[in-house]
């Protein structure tokens, strides 16, 4: 398994940098978004402290921030875990995202500058290449970048902020409930079709497109309970394994 995270930590240390709670938050959030840290994964303070070379107090601050962002669950006297949303919350998350993102793309249609449209086009190409090469983590990163770009440029900043939160929540539930044996949730035609409507200025077509996209994603899920077993050290660093 890739040790890219450990390489980044080592580089940060070599350059005289100090690993902060912000650094840990970013790395854990990225791993959750790219489905390398599945829901239910235990995140022990001692193990994370050893991986990142920081004190437990730094790890604790990071876990507090991640809990506030709905990435992890913290309970008194228990090890923090990556959140594992219920089936009901999963359905509610997709319902909410359809409403919010549908409105965002309808507002953006015909209003995005050429630079942003070209950026989406490039991300679509990168997503397709990553899928073709079997790099699922990279494909997810490019797919998420498309939706985050839409949230970032939303004419309604409140809706944009809500969409950013829902993108994260959606990624977590997809990681939890993706059908066993399904290598990828890639929907090859959806993002190109959305880009066509954003360029043309057809807001209702863009809204319909994003609704179909999210309904298709939800249709790929198996809404049954499953338990995550993950080698935390293999994801975040090197050395002895720390399993959930």
Automatic annotation (TrEMBL):
Coiled-coil ranges from the UniProt annotation: none
SUPFAM superfamilies in alphabetical order: GntR ligand-binding domain-like, Winged helix' DNA-binding domain
Domain (HTH gntR-type) ranges: 18-85
UniProt key word Transcription regulation: yes
An MF annotation (GO) of this entry: DNA binding
Superkingdom of origin: Bacteria
CDD domains: WHTH_GntR
UniProt protein name: GntR family transcriptional regulator
Source organism (scientific name): Candidatus Halomonas stercoripullorum
